[in-house]
């Protein structure tokens, strides 16, 4: 009876996910494969991820070509890279609550693999590849358009493609001010699962912001984002 309850609960989660996605699978086994990490079993999502990556890049290229008719090729390339990078994909996967659905091996489960950006991003690409195989390119493109259009409509072309540290540096240089200082405040956790807390300091504006991340770089970016927002208020 317990197994039956688990199966029903899993089906409900998958059905809810498909509603969020805006696509129902004709071959549910493709979706299961797309949500299976290689740590779980021999039948995993890496081949579907390869396919989905190609489908996504083509669809995004077409979308930004139509949405931004005045942008030159170089800007379009940077824009596409920003939409298909690991962070963008993992954020979308989390918004679809894919962390509750990805099937992982015991080791990955214990180490919090369901929240790892690389695993989430790969799984979303695999799902897109599965949609392509389950139907056709047009259906996959439709799902991608639904996921990405809100992001494209709210985009700031002046800052798109630039990370917070770069934006902060360019802003301070435009004001002829010294570059910020990044100080590691704390490092916690085991080697494979560390968390960093970094402070970004801009003495001229008396700004000190804290950022956290699973790497020093990501913590610096988080601190820089807050510092940039504060610095712009001073301008």
Q: Which characteristics define this entry?
A:
235 residues, three-stranded antiparallel beta sheet, 60% helix
3D structure, described in words:
The structure is a single chain. This protein is mostly helical and about 240 residues long. It has ten helices and three strands, in the order H-H-H-H-H-H-H-H-H-E-E-E-H. The protein has a three-stranded antiparallel sheet. Strand 1 (about 180-190) and strand 2 (about 195-200) form a beta hairpin. The longest helix has 22 residues, at about 45-65.
Bulk shape: flat
Tell me about the largest β-sheet.
3 strands, antiparallel
Mean pLDDT: 89
Q: Kindly report the oligomeric state of this protein.
A: single chain
Q: What string, H for helix and E for strand, traces the elements in order?
A: HHHHHHHHHEEEH
Question: Cα-atom Rg, whole angstroms?
Answer: 21 Å
Sheet/helix structural class:
mainly alpha
> What percent strand?
5-15%
Enumerate the spans where pLDDT stays under 50 for 5 or more consecutive residues.
1-6
For the terminal residues, how far apart are their CA atoms? 64 Å
Describe what is shown at a glance:
By secondary structure, the chain is mostly helical.
What is the strand and helix layout of this fold?
Layout: H1 2-21, H2 28-34, H3 46-67, H4 73-84, H5 86-95, H6 106-110, H7 117-134, H8 137-153, H9 164-174, E1 181-188, E2 195-202, E3 207-213, H10 216-234
Antiparallel strand pairs: 1-2, 2-3
Helix pairs in contact: 2-7, 3-4, 3-7, 3-8, 5-7, 7-8, 9-10
